[in-house]
Amino acid sequence: MSVKKEASGRRSIQVEVEIPGTPEEVWRAIATGPGISSWFAPAVFEERDGTPVALTTTLGAGMEFRAVVTAWDAPRRFVSEANGWFPGSPPVASEWTVEARAGGVCVVRVVQSLFASTDDWDDQLIGAESGMPGAFRILRLYLTHFRGQRSAFMQFMTPVAGTPADAWAALGGVVEDVDQTPPGALLRLDRPAPGTAALFTMDLGETVMAAFSFYFYGDQAAATVAREQPRWQAWVQERFA
Fold first, then answer.
1. Can you give the residue range of the structural domain that contains 217?
2. Residues 168, 63 share a domain
3. Res. 171: pLDDT tops 50
């Protein structure tokens, strides 16, 4: 993994993935609130005169990130700019593009960039570069098995006493992917409803965190989350207390 550095001070990383679907189907997945919520995190676009002007994404622990949309060319490209990930860090621009390929697939490419005169913020770009492939695997699974369906999301994050290995527990499902950056697994679920589960651990030095993200699909997705969220919350508290 590397950060591209330019004489102007622009520093950037690029990640891309090939996924099934037409440009219009892929665009709906990456450039609408319901689409992004189906594979990444709850998201809402603000519009003015029918054109998106801002994107708000809610990540773990209720953290909201708002980005201003600076370019919009559906279904090919959009660009947004947000405040840096940490206080004092420079603004970060994200450019998303969709390119059609033969065989009913598209390439989704994201470039994240910032301007800085030192290497102080490169680790943030490298962290984004290492995290995007995991999110793209969920996107590919969504477009392969659940394209266009309604979705609902629930997530649990908890500190773990011990090592990352201590955080893993058996869950029912078809294992679609196992990754080491960060250590995690992607499951395709039949129960309690059709969906996916992304399970991973993060070693933060003094603390190990376990995170469980569930994406349910279909007309009953919201009802499934309403029913299952209290049960899973109780399970997490009991298991990791």
1. 149-241
2. no
3. no
